[in-house]
C-alpha cells in the first residue's frame, strides 16, 4: 500500500501568515488522485481538496493544492483564526486508500 | 444536504463483535451514485479506511481488516452497518461513516463515535 508522509508534524504560525503543508507518497500517486481534509478538535474531517488541486464546494480560495507524482502541497495563503486545525492528505489512486498522519497548524 | 449519523455501543469487550449503524438523511442510499464507507481513527493518530458498500450490497474491504469485517445495507431504513469481530484493545478508535465518491474521496462524514474495547 502507498504510505503518505506529511511534514512538518506541527506548524506554528500567526493569523495572516502563509501555511505550506507537504505530503509525500512512497510511490507515485496515480493520476494525482490526492485529497486534503481539515479536522478540528472533536469534529469529523472536512474535504478541502480533491484531484490534488480542485477545491471542494464551499471551500475558500485561500486554500490551494498542488503537486504531482509523489510530492503534493496544501497552501493556505493567509491564515484565518478558523484555519488552525489538523490537516490530512489521502490518496485514492491505489487500493487500499490511505491517509497521512496529519500536520497540526497551531497558533504561534 | 446529506448528513450521516453513527450509532452503537461505546464499550465492547475483548473478543466480542463491534456493531455500528450509520443513518443517512437528506438523501437516499438506494438512489445510487455513491459508495458508503466506514473509516476509523485511533486515539491521537491518523485515519484508516475500513471498507465500503454499494446500495446493491456489493462490498470492498481493506485487506488488513477483511477477515474480521462485514458491512451491510438496509435501504428501507436508509442505513448501513459495520460489524468487526474478535476485537482487541487495538480496535479502540473513533469510527466514522462517510459518503464515498466512487472509491475516491470521502464527503461528507458523520460526527464519529468512540468505541472502546475493554473488559
What does this structure look like?
The complex is a heterodimer of chains A (108) and B (119). Chain A is mainly β. Chain A contains no helices and eleven strands. In chain A, the strands form two sheets. In chain A, strands 2, 4, 5, 6, 9, 10 and 11 form a seven-stranded mixed beta sheet that branches. In chain A, a hairpin with a 2-residue loop joins strand 7 (63-68) and strand 8 (71-76). In chain B, a hairpin with a 5-residue loop joins strand 4 (35-41) and strand 5. The relative contact order of chain B is 0.32. Chain B has 119 residues and is an all-beta fold. The chains are: A mainly beta (108), B mainly beta (119).
Topology:
The complex is a heterodimer of chains A (108) and B (119).
Chain A: E1 4-7, E2 10-13, E3 19-25, E4 34-39, E5 46-50, E6 54-55, E7 63-68, E8 71-76, E9 86-91, E10 98-99, E11 103-107
Parallel strand pairs in A: 2-11
Antiparallel strand pairs in A: 1-3, 3-8, 4-5, 4-9, 5-6, 7-8, 9-10, 9-11
Chain B: E1 3-7, E2 11-12, E3 18-25, E4 35-41, E5 47-53, E6 59-61, E7 69-74, E8 79-84, E9 93-100, E10 106-109, E11 113-117
Parallel strand pairs in B: 2-11
Antiparallel strand pairs in B: 1-3, 3-8, 4-5, 4-9, 5-6, 7-8, 9-10, 9-11
Order of helices and strands of chain A: EEEEEEEEEEE
Low-pLDDT residue intervals, each spanning 5 or more residues of chain A: none
Tell me about the biggest sheet of chain B? 7 strands, mixed
Through-space gap between termini of chain A: 35 Å
Instruction: Indicate the overall shape of chain B.
Output: globular
Element string of chain B (H = helix, E = strand): EEEEEEEEEEE
Question: Strand count, sense and closure of the main sheet of chain A?
Answer: 7 strands, mixed
Give the termini distance of chain B in whole angstroms.
39 Å
Instruction: Tell me what portion of residues of chain A adopts beta-strand conformation.
Output: over 45%
Mean pLDDT of chain A: 96
Would you identify the regions of chain B where 5 or more consecutive residues have pLDDT less than 50?
A: none
Helicity range of chain B: under 10%
- The protein's oligomeric status is heterodimer
Q: Largest contact between protein chains? A: A-B, 21 and 22 residues
Query: Helix tally of chain A?
Result: 0
> Approximately how much helix is present in the residues of chain A?
under 10%
| Count of distinct strands of chain B | 11
Q: What gross morphology of chain A would you assign?
A: globular
Binned strand content of chain B = over 45%
Mean pLDDT of chain B: 96
Helix and strand composition category of chain A:
mainly beta
